## 1
Amino acid sequence: MSLSRPFILRPVATSLLALAVAVMGMVAFFLMPVSPLPTLDSPVIVVRASLSGASPETMASSVATPLERSLGNIAGIDLMQSSSSEGSTSIFMIFDLDKDVHTAAREVQAAINAARPLLPSSMKQPPTYRNVNPSSTPVMVLALTSDLLGQGELYDLASTILAQKLAQVRGVGEVTVGGSSLPAVRVDLNPNMLNNMGVSLDTVRNALAATNSVRPKGFLDNNEYQWQLATNGQLRYARDFENLIVAWNNGSAVRLRDVAHVYDSTESLYNRGFYNTEQAVVLLVRRQADANIIQTVDSVKEMLPDLAELLPPQVRLDVAQDRTPSIRAALHEAELTLVIAVLLVIVVVMLFLQRIRATLIPAISVPISLLGTFIVMYFLGYSLNTISLMALIVATGFVVDDSIVVLENVMRYIERGMHPMRAALLGAREVGFTVVSMSVSLVAVFIPLLFMGGLIGRLFLEFAMTLSVAIGISLIVSLTLTPMMCAQLLRHEPKRRKSRVQRIWDAFFDRLVSGYGRMLRFAIRFRFLTLLTLLATVVLNVYLYIAVPKGFFPEQDTGMIQGFFRADQGTSFAAAVPKLEAFRKAIVQNPNVDTVSGYSGGRGGSNSSFFLIQLKPFAERTQSATEIINDMRKSLPTIPGARLSLVPQQDIRAGRGGDSAGSYQYDLLSGDLETLRKWVPQVRQAMATLPELVDVQSEAEEKGRRVELIINRESATRLNVEMSTIAGVLNNLFSQRQVSTIYSALNQYQVVMGIDVKYAQDPEVLKTVQIIASDGKLVPLSAFASFKIGTSPLSVSHQG
């Protein structure tokens, strides 16, 4: 029995079924998410931990190592790397692609919990983790600026109000705020006044910690009323803390203002955000992995007027970067190409068949096949992206083949005088197996792509599956809808005089066939020459395969550039800022640049920063992003002790994603640190000489300045000074320690205690530090310790 027979004999039901597929396909098309590339739920997780004031070596030994030992017990880790810098550790884990990311996340959390008892007790916050999507670059960057409010106040508005509201927008996965830190009351201690008044650091710290203690007070109750108990124990601003009594000296109160400079500032002094020529707080908006990027950005833009109403009138909220213009243009181009491809197929069919009724059949069957493909794509969780739309464009040429085979066979019988219904039944039955074998053979070509491993396999799985589904649906349409339409639309038409256009086309086609015949006869006559040509073609293809440049993914022009700034090792934040500003001013002046935003003092350290550069629209510039970068490299100022690397922003980057300043990463591994220190500069210099490479940099930073205290333990013991006391005093003075919390209705703020910066500009200040011995006496640090100047790494990296 023919598969096509029930559908040919039931034209109304078949038509309604086709109409239902078309409607559902259009609905699925508008419901599918839009993204530049297929969704990659990649099992890549980053664990981050912080410990204020800790050196890179301390972070590596006391934080990174316990976490690595615990995380190393998780099955399925392909690569684990850690990088520890001042006060911060990041552990980067790449899992096997078959590992479920949600399972991996649960196992990572369990490993962190298991390592908690081994971590320093002074860590304010436990380690955190997040999944890193290789294509999770920010879809939008917002900038908050003001001529009146300080950076801390802007950061408070951004983190307390804007980030919370934006995170509630459908499709938004994460909102990162940078460029400053929360407001704080800073207490800069004067070591000379502390010594003169005999006040210890722990005394000041304990007084600050106790002053804002929040505990339930209870209530009063009688038979008629109830009263809540409250106190005025909360101090909020620096002026409130200045009069705080921290100790008594000979019966006189020692107030905080007597031994410290108290002022309103921010938690960290080593952050700086910028937007074009202004200081700013920057918000990076990332989407969820399966979200529609265009709808997400449009939803955020629709919300901006409402967010602006929540801000003070002197605060401006601007869109510093928008990822969607190039995506909209690329998808529009792909959709237009798809429409053009369908129209060209119809035109070609019309030229060859030369019948309007016959042309209507593939003109209907091809769109129905594509719309049916959208339905399956929707249920498979696919998105509309350049890869899937490319598959549909390629599929357009395939899906028309099955219908043409059936159509041509049915027309052959009709032209012989057979009734259209009988011709459709007979013609469809004859070629049914042929059509099935054609479709199966086409799908078989893409089977290797379906089972390809790695990240490339994940990317092209959607391409191969979309193409295979389109061919499969085309097979179904060619055996159901196509023969039914042949039976209803085709008629036997007597021969008529051809039009001038038809005669011209027929003459052209006859000459084409005649030319092909002559070439075929030549090939058969000169077999040796034909085989030699074939062999030469194969050899040429092998050569071209070797010679053609290769890469992970074609470099895109997304209209955005990422910049990575780094000052020399050991450069202070204050010294790095002018160098950063020089680069920023040069970039802003580039005629191809629309906006520049970013911030410094992030996880990369106080001497680093990153730039987010939005280029002008394609219609307003004549150069590609790569060409603009090459011009920028020539025009950027040469600044001693600083460098800026520029790379085009891509939708996907392999390895550690967008945190790296380069497109490629080469790792040197050794169990001997001295061997690494010897070979790293040699390898870097050798790579820098290669003409194919630019901006060759090393992440190894071994020349940071260090002051090493050499403690005479015997002298310290003799003076009744304990090692833990020494560490506590140094921590109180030089670690920018958060010693108290200020509670408000919307957020919590910190009281940060440390030494006044003017007393911490030279190692000689260590001679003025006093330690309280166990007998209560003040002992100068110089009585049992000396110091020497040396170098230390600014970051410590582990692998495995």
## 2
Amino acid sequence: MKKTYIIASLIILLCLISIIEISANVTNEDSGLGKGPLREDNKGWIGGKIIWEGHNLRNASIKVFKDQKLRQIYTEGLILDKEGIYALEIDDPGTYYLYVFVDDNGNNKPDKGDGMGIFGVADWSDVDQKPIPVKVEKGKKLLGIDIEITANINEQGQVVPVSIFGHSDFTNGISGKLILPDYKFKNAIVYVYSDPLWNNKITQTDANENGEFALEVPSGKYYLMAIIDENNSNLMDSGDKFGVYGMTRFGMYPKPIIVSSGKVIMERNILIIGKIDASGKPVPLQASDLPKTKPEDSLELIGKVEWLGHETKNAFIQAYTDPSMAVAVARAKADNNGNFSIKLEPGEYYLTVGVDADGDGKYSKGDGIGLYGTKDAINELPKKLLVTKDSQKEQIKLTITAQFDDSGRLFSIPQEEKQEDNAEQPIQVDTDSPFTGISGKIIWTDHKITNVILIFAEDPTFEKGVRVPLNLDENGVYACSASVGVHFLMAIVDNNENGQADDGDGIGFYGTGFLGDHWGTPHAVTVIENLTTPYINITITALLNEDGKPSMTTDGIKAYYGEPDNIFDTEENIQEWWYWEKGVSFTFNKNDNEWILVDVYEFEPKEMQSSNKRSNKGIIYYTFEDYIWSVNPDGTNRNRIASGINVTGTIDGQKILFLDSYTGLNMLYPYTQTLTQLDWKQTGTQQALSNDGKQVAFTREIADRKRITLMNIETGIEMTLPGENIDFSCPSWSSDGELIAYAGSLPLSKDQQGKPNRDIYYYDTVSGRTERVSDTPIDEFDPAWSSGKTKMLVFCRAESDHSQLWLFTFYVNG
């Protein structure tokens, strides 16, 4: 997560700076530490240095705050030493927080180039870094409190990290940091490529001594490699170190970075994990530099390059020993028919092929690439080629599966001839051949839908959006291409075909709609490259009137109130829907086979024994728009129960537990229609009720760690789950109450970076034993048990920019 760089409180704070000298004036000749007033026993002192290399710090000012949010100022003063040495006299010893502002151009106002620093914040873009308190005691000197300048003001007046400043003109870009402990990056270069084979370089930049870098690139998909040129030879040779974004250890695959229009993608840090050994091969950073004592005999392998509908002359083959494909260990050139031979020692290799179609000696429009063992060089990971003596009997097949366009980016090419004018054909929903986009259905009961405009927006306010006309089939089903990323969707049924949302048009939002008298909050939709996000169904819940105000459609009323208790046809073209327990009825007029809302009548709600029509197949309880709802599995009898979130319950439906933001935890007994409030002084979040309804598990902060607590509802007795995890979350009970699954993360080791990933665990309440279900470098969360006798556990696993569901089955024998 990143900080918002427009930090209003700091900008206001800067404008209020009044430059005054502090009582302990500091000069080059005399820092004042240990002299004069510093000997008074009833005061305390803070001393240190402001760090901003290459800058005169005589125009720096320092502020002392009483609170961590930097709102209550205690004192402030001007630093007179150009090297940034300071000393502060504190009359009232206590705990304080320090903030520094450097008026770099000396014009007495905060503007472009000025610097800022907070004691304890080494990376301004890291929201987890907080100001560190400084405790001042009577008669004591607290020295060595150095404050580094970590942010600048850019041309727009925004506060941005130092690594971003100087690139304020970026509309699209990537920034990050090279990671290698205790290392000064003097000859480090960061390269950006459009392909994972490192063929088409887009741009490059030098990292500073701290490893920070920033690059401007167009919108697209990119791969990053960092090289430390230790011998300054301008070549990647023996002794040089390297890292690839996405590779947290040697032998992993590169990870792409997707840059959207108008965005700078930050914190794309690159771990330095490899080096080039004496033989010129890439090896792990910790590997010995000694070459092999006796190299094995090379084997000559044969193969063929194929490219459907194209010639394969000027094909170049390269072999790599690791999936980063940073340094080739062997190369070969194919003949005009695509035949080649290459010599490799026995072992595992990754093979790539590139075809310079125009023979210009560089990768440009029309050139193609391929990876061994894949059908898509862009979206599939390369397969290993195991080289043994038997490999000489088989022919290696390399197929061109991606091609460069005008801008130097790669696009996938199918393994069959393209149809002419394919771009003009309407998109068809084909689950066997997914495209990048969404598919679903526009729902408006008894209404003939012809013209629909779908609006893609980056935020739920829809201040800015992209309008896309939809092609629907006779059932309202659609498929639509979309850019990769997160979108909010609004559908306009343009009945009068004027391209506007006005009188007579229908409106719907994905995930919500017009709820009684207000619009709900739309849900986000994630689009993943080369994947179709299905079931994006949008119900038209509102009809716009002449005055532009919305009224609910029949679908909108059912979505909000559920099925009506009674429906009366009072006249041939008039129908009334009555919701007795909700105290509201609706009157519709029929117009061309659709019902138009003409009147709403509210009255005192009445109890009805028949309104609670329960399904013999059970009832589903869920949270929607901060309310608890119930519905039969077949979608009938949808009812709003109460306001609340985080609903959980027993499998038999006897008890339902949920959290209300005003009254706390509530227990609902559906069969008796009674509601009780649990009188607990302290609870937590992510509640999970056991199947017998006697215990509840929830997460709670204990000593700066999230732990899972079990509480007996009747006695209030608590127990905290044991374990070495620093972060417990998402508790879930098995149907028999014996196992509690949860997500947990372990502390990072000294050589690990970033935020720890979670794995899935379970605690056995019978044996008191904790077991690990999964152990992967990927983040896993939200476990949930099946309700049957067989213990089946489903959970989410983060995959790049989306999540997948994984299923574990526990057998009787464990």
